[in-house]
Write a structure and sequence with these properties.
- By secondary structure, the chain is mainly beta.
- The chain is built from 4 helices and 19 strands.
- Strands 3, 4, 5, 6, 7, 8, 9, 13, 14, 15, 16, 18 and 19 form a 13-stranded mixed β-sheet that branches.
- It is globular.
């Protein structure tokens, strides 16, 4: 069940942050959204190659983790927009690596050290792009993002900024799954010479599923996002896990400077 705008989940101390597109009130609140989060296993060394100094890749069964996510934000405090991205499972070098990875990803953000480092984050509005770049140094660009879902079936794409084609597309149906609360996220980013640890608190129920017939297609390897997917060896690959929800609500908090 979705929470109303005045629910205690959204009643959080807020402050204003200037950006190049105007002031943004933090945390950013998302009242109505959907997500498809595709998690792939790939060579851990390939993941580490794309992580900046200071972060180390985590693994599941000896493989690194790469997440490709699509979001449809229908009601937020920063406007309506779509988002897609690539993020790599990691944690800071200074933190001990847990014995198991997947159980940690299911923890609430406040109790989790394993997180993700975002390497690509297209959005469909300039306001969302500027906020991400100016507040967290997320690698955002503005472009068209297709998002279509019908039950267990999904079809999405990220277009080249000049609309001359797609960078990537993903389509198919997720496999068997079971209901599960949407998961919180911990994001690590480098901003103004500081490492930030950002908590994304979520509410809602979705499903955790197998990859089914879903396949990722890399359509342009000249663009940096396509190059990253190619290096991660994800072209024509099936995710090993899918987390999807049409009831996503979240609170995107300011990042805390890490010591």
């Amino acid at each position: 069940m979705k929470l109303p705008h005045n629910d205690i989940f959204f009643q959080f101390p807020r402050h204003t942050v200037p950006t190049s597109q105007g002031d943004v009130t933090m945390p950013i609140l998302y009242y109505d959204a959907s997500q498809w989060l595709f998690i792939f296993k790939t060579d851990k060394a390939r993941v580490q190659q794309l992580l900046p100094d200071g972060l180390k890749a985590v693994s599941v069964g000896g493989k690194g983790l790469a997440g490709v996510a699509f979001y449809e934000y229908r009601d937020t405090s920063i406007g309506v927009y779509n988002e897609a991205g690539i993020a790599l499972g990691c944690l800071p070098n200074s933190m001990p690596t847990p014995a198991t990875t997947l159980p940690h990803l299911m923890k609430r953000a406040e109790n989790n050290t394993i997180g993700f480092h975002v390497i690509d984050l297209p959005v469909t509005t300039q306001a969302a792009c500027s906020a991400g770049r100016d507040i967290w140094s997320f690698p955002k660009i503005v472009t068209d993002i297709g998002y279509q879902e019908n039950g267990s079936r999904f079809n999405g794409h990220v277009a080249l900024p000049d609309n001359s084609g797609n960078i990537l597309s993903i389509s198919g149906s997720s496999g068997p799954g079971f209901p599960w609360p949407v998961i919180d996220l911990v994001l690590y980013s480098r901003h103004q010479k500081n490492w930030l640890r950002t908590l994304v608190n979520t509410h809602g129920t979705g499903r955790i599923c197998t990859g089914g017939s879903l396949r990722l297609q890399v359509e342009n390897t000249d663009h940096p996002m396509g190059k990253h997917l190619d290096l991660l060896d994800l072209n024509q690959k099936k995710p090993f896990m899918v987390i999807r929800s049409t009831e996503l609500q979240l609170r995107l908090n300011s990042g805390a400077v890490m010591p």
